[in-house]
Amino acid sequence: MWRYLASRLVQIPLILVVVTMTIFVVVRSTPGDPVQIMLGMETSPDAVAAIRKEFRLDRPVAAQYVLWVGDLLQGNLGRSIRLNTPVTQLLTERFPVSLRLAAGAMLVALCISIPLGILAALYRNTWIDYLCTGYTVAGFAIPNFALAMILIYVFSIKLGWFPITGIGSGDAKTAFGVIGPYILPAMALGTLQTAVLTRLLRSSMIDVLMQDYVRTAHAKGLMPTSVVLVHALKNAMIPFVTMVAIQCGYLIGIQVTIEYIFAIPGMGSAVLSGVINRDFPVIQGFTLVIAAFFLFANLVADLLYGFLDPRIRY
Amino acid sequence: MAVILATDSGSLARDKAQTLRFASGARLAFRQFLRNPAATVGLVVLVLLCLAAIAAPWISPFGPIQIKLSAKLQPPSWAHLLGTDHFGRDVLSRLLYGARVSLSIGVLVVAFSMSFGVPIGMVAGFMRGHVDNVLMRLMDAFLTFPPLLLAVAIVGLLGPDLRNVMMAIGVVQIPVLARIVRASTLSAREETYVMAARALGASPLRIALRHILRNILSPIMVQVTIGFSAAIIAEASLSFLGLGTQPPNPSWGRDLAEARRYMADAPWLFLSPTATIMLAVLSINFVGDGLRDALDPRSWRTRARAATATE
Amino acid sequence: MALLTVRNLTTSFATDQGTIRAVNGVSFTLEPGEVLGLVGESGSGKSVTALSLMRLVREPPAKVEAELLDFEGTDLLRAPARTLRDIRGAGIAMIFQDPMRSLNPVLTIGRQLTEPLRRHMRMGAAAARHRAIELLEMVGIPMAETRLGSYPHQFSGGMRQRVMIAIALSCNPRLLIADEATTALDVTIQAQIVELVRRLTKNLGTAVIWISHDLGLVAGLCDRVNVMYAGRIVETGPVREVFYRPAHGYTIGLIGCTPRVDQVGTPLTPINGLPPNLMDEAPLCPFLPRCDVAIPACRQTRPALRNLPGGHAAVCLADLTSHHRGAH
Q1: Of the candidates B177, B165, B178, B126, which has an alpha carbon nearest to the alpha carbon of residue B249?
Q2: Residue B299 CB: number of other CB atoms within 10 A?
Q3: Which of B26, B120, C211, C291 could lock onto C249 through a cystine, CB 3.0 to 4.6 A?
Q4: CB-based contact B156 A276, cutoff 8 Å
Q5: Cβ of C51 and B307 within 8 Å?
Q6: Secondary structure of residue B205 in the 3-state scheme
Q7: Among candidate residues B295, B115, B170, the one with its CA nearest the CA of residue B222
Q8: CA-to-CA distance for C88 and C92, rounded, in angstroms?
Q9: Burial (Cβ within 10 Å: 0-12, 13-18, ≥19) of residue A165
């Protein structure tokens, strides 16, 4: 078990190296001089040269990378060229927001997918199943920002139930004021996850319900709720829970469109504005964290599998 | 314990002989595909969409960037079937031209990812050993890229032209495709007919191209449909963020972005592109599901056996 | 009064190609403490009969009908779901063929043992645990207390089946149905399990229905036997009568292809032909295409149940006394 963990933990930095190197190279392949673009055409060449030197852009790419890694190992991710604040500070501001949004989306996804998946499996090939499966099919086909607009139209504009903005503003007074602005974005962000998870739980449950041990449970005269929720679900949950962990890691990476619509100051919008402004340190630092989080979530997912299934012991 | 009920083996054998009489597996698969109503409808819709996109210059009532400020923000009517936007442009025409963008990006992305993913997967699966290891670790690394973020980075930094968009969206599909191809290659490699070919002295390249490729075709085709629909949504996302198709060129994602400001007064502006995207993606997904079922002979089970499984 | 009365049980499945009658007009009775064997080849309907009377078949697509399906005075056909659940596990218990697949892999066997105890006998957690340990010891599992926390995959095949037996007998059912309970086990383990079940059920006074395709097993174990073919009972009677004086072509065929220790070297005679099509409503005897002892009348009339001496009956037109062996 520990050996498995160790080998996975060794792999993670290696993968991160590949990821960060790629971003490094891509970022430095932009046409034109990024500093010039950023500072504008009127800036004096001396000022431009000075900035380039400060951000090490006059050195060869390989050297820049090595130096960046060196700084990273000391906990320093550089400064944002545009905002002149340490990247780590920006991260501490934005990461919790993204986490909250992801958690909200996952919560919505779980609340919907677990009952739907179970019902669709239990009432397989009836109208209930078709409804649930139809819902998942639609969920796969609609981009989350399109759904966000529909939700905004229905719940904010027409019904006035939920606010559209207000995350990170810090002047919320009530509990609803704090949570409220997260509701619509979480719902929109969670759509694809709901579709994926419902599908997965449904097919998992269908497989499990056909197993002999479910028949044994019925033969023992147990209550149907017990059979489904204990005997069947406990088995069906195993692949489901691991998928939840994987999706959590994935969520942070796809938030950018939702953050854009709802003006949420999270990780995705930081990368977006970093890209638009050619702000290398921000792009590099944020991508690193997002990728690391994703890898970590995958590791948790694998460990969970071993934890939940007594037949697997690493 | 499954209850095996005996059906008349004689009649079963007769059925089997009948199906084997069809000349090629492709015909068999196609018939099976047509038995799936969703898949067939999906295919029809997809073909119609492609035809509409190709024929856009001839069938769209107005030009996609034709501005007519006197007619702005009009709800759907007989003159403008899907209404007009804030510049007086006809929504339907924009959507038709937008289909050209979305569908061609889909094709390009699929071609791009296949041209890298298939060879990588085949090489990894065929050669195994160190080569396989290295290649798969590389693929793993690329799998950890949050796809949209990478696309944002590439297109945002390198410029919003078609080639960059294709690369940006396609790059993250390569590892998935490579994995699938590798898995199929691994199992196809062990098939007896491959060993027979090697025993007859066929060169590895010939084996690869003739035998294995035919075998891995079906999972590739299914993955291709998934990649195609993912590409459409990715392009829409990029255009939505302002990174993909640049205004005033039509694109479904761009239309959605511009519809934001007028959501309250002109809901048809965001509903139409949403519906179109969903239509395209759904039809492709149904076709993909149908392909998957049609190409897997194991799912052609006799219906009697399905009904007799006890609880 | 009989423990179980089955009259004209029919289980059919509706398919696109027609209706399949897996169980076709099966009737028998079972007295308390009696051991009944149910033999036949794969597909003869033995398992479906058992599952049908416990109402464990998925209905739909199956349809279970009978003139009478009575267990201890309860009409199993018309009883509400709640009553059926009370009977399952506590009145009628069942053990299945493959213990690895019949035990839940993610629950401890302690949990799976105490479940029926708490449900049917209303035991509290501590009492159920105590009883579970007793049960494990009863079926011969050493270190019972520590094994409560084990999972099924940590046991061997024979031990798993013992656990299943413990679970089945935990609430003192009046009827135990053993569906091919030993088929998936090694021969030596088979003997142990059979002996275990025989001993325990005798002590508890439980009636048993042994379902098997192994004639030798049934011969040594049961009081009476029903021979099934194509969803029907074709012969029934005390074990000695049926095996020494078989009265149906199929029974003779079955006996003929069973290896005998005292006839080493003699070739076995297989039964020719293929299993029957369960969709046909055979106007004549369903075994006719494969029967070696058919007489001309078989091609004209459908056989009815013919009573023979000694509580023996068969659905056969032929007089097969020439095929009888002497009593050994």
Answers
A1: B165
A2: 10
A3: C291
A4: yes
A5: no
A6: helix
A7: B295
A8: 5
A9: exposed
Rounded to the nearest angstrom, the minimum Cα separation between A309 and chain B is 23
| Residue whose entry in the numeric block shows the structure tokens 């639609």 | A138
Chain A, 177-236: which have a CB under 8 Å from a chain B CB?
Answer: 210, 212, 214-215, 218
Tokens of C66: 């009978």
Helix (H, G, I), strand (E, B) or coil at C27: strand
Which chains have 3 or more CB–CB distances shorter than 8 Å to chain A? B, C
pTM of the shown model: 0.84
The closest of C154, C188, C182, C148 to C167, measured between CA atoms, is C148
Write out the two tokens for A60: 């060869």
Report ipTM for this prediction. 0.86
Does residue B217 surpass a pLDDT of 90?
no
Residue among C282, C277, C324 nearest C303 (CA) = C282
Contacting residues of A for B273, CB less than 8 Å apart: 146
In a 13 Å sphere around the CA of C79, the CA atoms on its Cβ side amount to: 20
Provide the 10 A C-beta neighbour count for residue C315.
Answer: 22
Count of beta carbons in the 10 Å neighbourhood of residue C15: 19
- A181 and A175 Cβ atoms separated by less than 8 Å: no
- Work out the mean pLDDT of chain A and round it to a whole number: 85
pLDDT in the model for residue B122: 85
Instruction: Determine the Cα–Cα distance for residues C253 and A242; give it in Å rounded to an integer.
Output: 54
For chain A, the three-class secondary structure string (H helix, E strand, C coil) is CHHHHHHHHHHHHHHHHHHHHHHHHHHCCCCCCHHHHHHCCCCCHHHHHHHHHHCCCCCCHHHHHHHHHHHHHCCCCCECCCCCCEHHHHHHHHHHHHHHHHHHHHHHHHHHHHHHHHHHHHCCCCHHHHHHHHHHHHHHHCCHHHHHHHHHHHHHHHCCCCCCCCCCCCCCCCHHHHHHHHHHHHHHHCHHHHHHHHHHHHHHHHHHHCCHHHHHHHHCCCCHHHHHHHHHHHHHHHHHHHHHHHHHHHHHHHCHHHHHHHCCCCHHHHHHHHHHCCCHHHHHHHHHHHHHHHHHHHHHHHHHHHHHCCCCCC
CA dist A97 and A103 (Å) reads: 10
Pair C177, C35: CB distance under 8 Å: no
Q: Scanning every residue of chain A, which has its alpha carbon at the shortest distance from the alpha carbon of B253?
A: A146
Tell if the CB–CB gap between B303 and C277 is shorter than 8 Å: no
The predicted model gives B274-285 an average pLDDT of 93
- Partners of B8 on chain C (C-beta within 8 Å) are 274, 276-277, 279-280
Strand partners, C179: C211
SS3 C306: strand
Q: How far apart are CA C301 and CA C317, in angstroms?
A: 9
Residue B215 CB neighbours (<10 A): 16
pLDDT digits (tens, 9 = 90+) for C263-288: 777 777 777 777 777 777 777 888 88
Q: Where are the alpha helices (DSSP H) in chain B?
A: 9-20, 25-34, 37-54, 56-59, 91-127, 129-143, 147-158, 162-171, 173-189, 192-199, 204-207, 213-240, 252-259, 268-295, 303-307
Contact C222, C37 (CB under 8 A): yes
Quote the tokens at residue B71: 């007619």
Distance from CA of C130 to the nearest CA of B (A): 31
Over 90: is that where the pLDDT of B132 sits?
A: no
Most confident of the following: A64-73, B186-195, B291-300, C73-82: C73-82
Other beta carbons within 10 Å of C27: 17
**Chain B contact for A137, CB < 8 A?**
yes
Q: Render pLDDT for A47-60 as a digit per residue (tens, 0 to 9).
A: 777 777 777 777 78
Whether C273 has its CB under 8 Å from any CB of chain B: the answer is no
B301: number of Cβ within 10 Å: 9
Residues in B closer than 8 angstroms to A23, CB to CB, are: 153
Tell which residue, B292, B288, B287, B293, has the closest CA to residue B45.
B287
